Amino acid sequence: MTTGSTARDPGTGPAPGAPASAGRVLRRWKLWIVPAALSALVALVLSLLYMGGILTPTGSLHRLPIALVDADTGAPPPGRDENLGARVSAAVVSSTPNDQVRWRRMSQGRMRGELASGKVFGALVIPSGFTADVGRLTTGEATERPALTVLTNPGMGSLGSSLAQRITQRAANEASASIGRELTGSQAAAGQPPGFRLLLADPVAVQVKVGHPIGGHSGLGLSAFYYTLLLVLAGFISANVVHNGVDTSLGYADSEIGPWHTRRPTVPIDRTRTLLVKMGMTAGLSVLTTTLIMVATIGVLGMDAPHLVLLWLFSFCACLTVGLGVQAVNAAFGGIGQLVAMFVFIALALPSSGATVPLEAVPGFYRFLGTFEPIRQVADGVRAILYFDARGDAGLARGWTMIAVGFVVALVFGFAMTRYYDRKGLHRMVPQPG
């Protein structure tokens, strides 16, 4: 009979206190449940969110605003009640479904203001002498083809401006074909040589011009989006760095760098004061990150950026608000807070930003998200500062308003949750390692 030890069959398992093998740990099916479920959820949801927002921009069009200017002052042709400008305008509007494009009839002066404030993605302009110019074709007095002008607005993003240009050009070409059918069937075309009849079949030229130019170092209208993304990522990442660093310094989390592992003595501090520390550090770091983003993008890379002081102030407030929001989410949700914050501030915000694919060209779910998700609000303000002379009606006023709302929500939500936890006695104190 032996004492002080227990007989053990070889292969039944490690001796008490012996290191576990990697294979034995991997065979524990419970170990796989949470990582597999979270990884699968993230992969599935991100795939649906990102690809669902960009695959069918044309099919998802919803009232894309385009200006329509009829400046034609010519008298109606014989036997007609309206001049060609009025007829072309009516044909353009009726040729496009109302639920896809919102043609906004306006004067040339108002059109310039709408382009300069980002209210429209482009414009179609019928010139003042359009009826007279088309009439000269039938008499042989014309020296060049009459023209309709398509104006683009690159400050609204390359895809948005391109969609508007394509729609407007197609409408102008259809108008030319309609006029051509009328001219070739008129008495003026009878007996004319084939070349002349060919001209009458497509009598109107379509000129494409930039309606509201932006700088050459603006990424074809994408610099506002990428600059916004930098601000949001800086706020998100620095907030998480602060969150982990403070927990480590206060002894509520281990520090492991390479092979070195340490655990500091736990500092007795409640959740509310901890959140106050984290938010204070986030505010200080937002000054640094905002400044460095501007130094890198403007000072080093030469991005076109007027209104530097206003841009810095708006950028700081946006970066700070994102950081405070992340701290509030982390304080409320604990260990899964960083994943929740990633969805709130990145995963759901990117496809609903309206900065690369216009909100008018994405499914309705993304338009709903765009009413409150942060990247859309920040991008509107940044775009107004960079491209539209910092006009409030170009999105800057909305940007400031939503940043203020986000700032208040972050503070109220974060401190309400930590005060609740503290009052319930849900302290973070943990036993000290032996």
Provide key terms for this protein.
alpha/beta; five-stranded mixed sheet; 434 residues; disordered N terminus; 7 strands; 2 domains; abc type-2 transporter like fold; two-stranded antiparallel ribbon
How does the SSE layout of this entry go?
Layout: H1 22-26, H2 29-54, E1 64-70, H3 84-95, E2 101-105, H4 108-116, E3 122-126, H5 130-139, E4 147-152, H6 158-184, H7 194-201, E5 205-210, H8 223-249, E6 255-257, E7 260-262, H9 271-300, H10 308-333, H11 337-347, H12 364-369, H13 374-387, H14 396-423
Helix pairs in contact: 3-6, 6-7, 8-9, 8-10, 8-11, 8-13, 9-10, 9-14, 10-11, 10-13, 10-14, 13-14
Descriptive report:
- It is found in: Cell membrane.
- It is a multi-pass membrane protein.
- Belongs to the ABC-2 integral membrane protein family.
- Pfam families: DUF3533.
- The chain is α/β, with parallel strands linked by helices.
- The protein folds into 2 domains: 64-210, abc type-2 transporter like domain (abc type-2 transporter like fold), CATH 3.40.1710.10; 219-423, no CATH class.
- It is 55% helix and 8% strand.
- The chain has helices at residues 22-26, 29-54, 84-95, 108-116, 130-139, 158-184, 194-201, 223-249, 271-300, 308-333, 337-347, 364-369, 374-387, 396-423; strands at 64-70, 101-105, 122-126, 147-152, 205-210, 255-257, 260-262.
- 37% of the residues are buried.
- Mean pLDDT is 89; it is low at 1-12.
